[in-house]
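Bug report

Summary: structure tokens for Cache domain-containing protein differ between web form and batch submission.
Environment: batch mode, default settings.
Steps: 1) Submit the sequence below via batch. 2) Compare with the web form result.

Sequence submitted:
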Amino acid sequence: MIMLLPLRLFYIAVLQVILTSIVIYFFVTSEYRTLSNQNLKTLENFLIQQKQQELKNYTALVSSAIHHMHPIADATNEQKKADVKKLIDKLLYNGDDGYFFAYDQHGVNIAHPKEPHRIGENWWHIESEQGDKIIQQLISNAKAGGDFLHYPWMRPSSQTVADKMSYSTYLDSWQWMLGTGIYLDDMNQQLATLQQKIDLHINKTKQIILLVALSAIFIIFIFGLGINLSHKKKADKKITELGQKIINLREEQHRHVSRELHDGIVQILVSIKYSIEATGIFLSQQQQSKPKPLQDAEKNLAVAIQEVRRISHHLHPRILDELGLSAAIMSLGKEFSKQTGINVEITKPKLSKLLPDDINTSLYRVVQESLINIEKHANATKVTIDLSIENKWLTLVIADNGQGFNTSTPQQAFGIGLRNLTERIEYHCGQLTISSSKLGTIITANIPTHVFAFYFNANRQSSNKPEPPITKNNTHE
């Protein structure tokens, strides 16, 4: 099935928006996450460097204080050792978590203000869960000129094991390892909070991208739908106009053929009939009887004239052009009643020539097609035809008391005749409805008066004797 060009463009535009949104979605979120992780890593390194510098400064201050207190070190002097230990126990910072500790070169604890049970004990072989020799590494870093070590350790303020970063330096004159450290869980918590905020921003960015994409798709959808509806409306209008042109051309052709039959062939046949009648008179005067072939020719000629007139009237009744719709329906009803014996009751307004020719023709064809169907299928004994103009509607109702039919049957089962009538009425912005039951069938054609109001008013003003359109005459056949 070939799609209209606007519909193809619509699909292409929607597909392009979807693909672009997908690319932007993954590219922007990936780049944003990568950049955020880089910034987070940079911030983490910066904070670590700050804390490292802070630990170096603290350690340098304590070393200076010890050397200031005892310029000449003597580790064997218990008094000096007690003074240094007392100094280390007093130098606290960051609440309970900032303290200094000291070990000798063999791993014996000299000072530990938060864990006094360690003093005097050898912790050379103490290990972390990963198997790292914590005290040995601290002493090794100190002897190497000072360095940092990460390890898990009990946090005094919370009595929980936390990640700790310590800096140790070596006091050569005392042959001690002096160290201090900070717990990194606060920093890790800050970084985790920042990571959550970054993730939240990334999710918001995703939502914005999705919202923009969906909005763009929705706008394109509405725009495309509007274009397609507009094109469909124009196409339907063109099809309707084309259909009406075909109908008008066909009616014009019927009118032309009807006129040719009535004014041409019928007149020729009537002339031949007069000639035959004149021949019969001449033979009578000569006291001769008409030959049987002449009598048969005269009878057949009369039948032919009547048949041609009937065909001419069926193609296009001249009365419709000369006297209008009401008179044409009256004539059609009389002819139908005479031909079928079915009683026809007609209620009509005196419309005369106050309706446009195309509406006259359409309504006449509705009546004509309905009567043909009633004759063929209804088995009716009575038909009523009502034509009225009320409440801004021109309404034509054809009802019979026949056997009816199933209206739930698809419309194509009604025949091409009724479909054509429906298209005719819809062209005039009206509607054709059919209701049927065992009590009979009702066909209703409604056309709004605004369709022919200008023509109606113009003809009424130009008429010397205007007749109210709602006045009705009742005729019984």
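Above is the batch result. After comparison, the two runs are identical; trailing whitespace caused the diff. The chain has two domains: 5-189, 318-476. Residues 274 and 298 are 9 Å apart (CA to CA).
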